[in-house]
Write a structure and sequence with these properties.
This is Cytochrome C. This protein has about 170 residues and is mainly α. It is built from 8 helices and no strands. The protein folds into 2 domains: about 35 residues; about 100 residues, Cytochrome c-like domain (Cytochrome Bc1 Complex, Chain D, domain 2). It is elongated, with a radius of gyration of 32 Å.
């Protein structure tokens, strides 16, 4: 069935295919990497695009609205929608802790005061009471506001969403 001539043809075919592959690779390098194969350092590939200086972004930024005004205009119904992201770790029922402590009556509650939940200790060092301002700072950037906190959530970037969420949490248990 197999003789030496058949085996020689098969090995030769594989060697030939490999050589064609290497030749194709070399040609592709020459096509796409012009200047890399002996064309000299003085030759530059590409075009320089001149770009005008951009106007300062600070001049175009809108004035920041104080958080107290955002909280006064906040909609608890919108905050309930924002709370969906929190449901994975927090419960609203009194005493029902999840991955995080329950949020029943959190606005105005002492920081780190939920019985049966093991806090990291970082929160107690930063604040004593969960005021709307403290909640705003924590919800914006939990790890930045309370370094060492166990909360892994990256935070809510929009101030309006934070205000709506705090207004919603203020209606739960208060």
């Amino acid at each position: 069935m197999f003789d030496t001539m058949t085996l020689t043809k098969i090995v030769g075919a594989f060697c030939g295919a490999f050589l064609i592959f290497l030749l194709g690779k070399s040609l592709a390098e020459d096509l796409y990497y012009v200047g890399a194969h002996g064309y000299g350092e003085d030759k530059k590939v590409g075009y320089k695009i001149e770009v005008a200086e951009a106007a300062p972004a600070a001049a175009e930024a809108e004035p920041e609205v104080p958080f107290a005004e955002l909280l006064a205009a906040a909609d608890p119904a919108d905050g309930e929608g924002v709370f969906r992201a929190c449901r994975a770790c927090h419960k609203l029922e009194d005493g029902a802790n999840g991955t995080g402590p329950h949020l029943y009556g959190v606005v105005g509650r002492d920081v780190g005061s939920v019985d049966g939940y093991g806090y990291s200790g970082a929160l107690v060092q930063v604040a004593e009471v969960w005021t709307p301002e403290n909640l705003n700072g924590f919800l914006e950037n939990p790890k930045g506001w309370a370094p060492g906190t166990k909360m892994s959530y990256s935070g809510l970037r929009k101030a309006e969403d934070r205000a709506d969420l705090i207004a919603y949490l203020g209606t739960i248990g208060n």
